[in-house]
Design brief:
single chain, 89 residues, mainly alpha, two-stranded parallel sheet, MeMalonylCoA_mutase_a/b_cat, Cbl-dep_enz_cat
Length: 89
């Protein structure tokens, strides 16, 4: 699959090492912002980098706080894309 390109931001790395839900979101979005700032070049556009990004987060048994974390992550992701001049996906 020569055309397959995927980028993963592993927020579970931070969550499994004791980060709070807020820290996990912050560190994951910080990593994603660094990738969006550094990876685009002449061959790959910013929109292609954003489309290839996948964010993984650790989920604990606390049902409602985890739902809130995922909703916050989704809204903050749209805000991050807006900051880079991209439409929310």
């Amino acid at each position: 699959m020569p055309d397959f390109q995927a980028l993963a931001v592993n927020g579970a790395f931070f969550g499994n090492r004791g980060a709070t839900a807020t820290q996990q979101i912050a560190f994951s979005l910080n990593t994603a912002a660094a990738l969006l700032a550094e990876l685009p070049n002449d061959e790959i556009t910013l929109a292609q980098v954003a489309a290839a990004l996948h964010v993984h987060v650790a989920i604990t048994p606390s049902y409602f706080p985890e739902m809130a974390k995922l909703r916050a992550l989704r809204r903050l992701w749209a805000t991050l894309l807006h900051a880079f001049g991209l439409p929310p996906s």
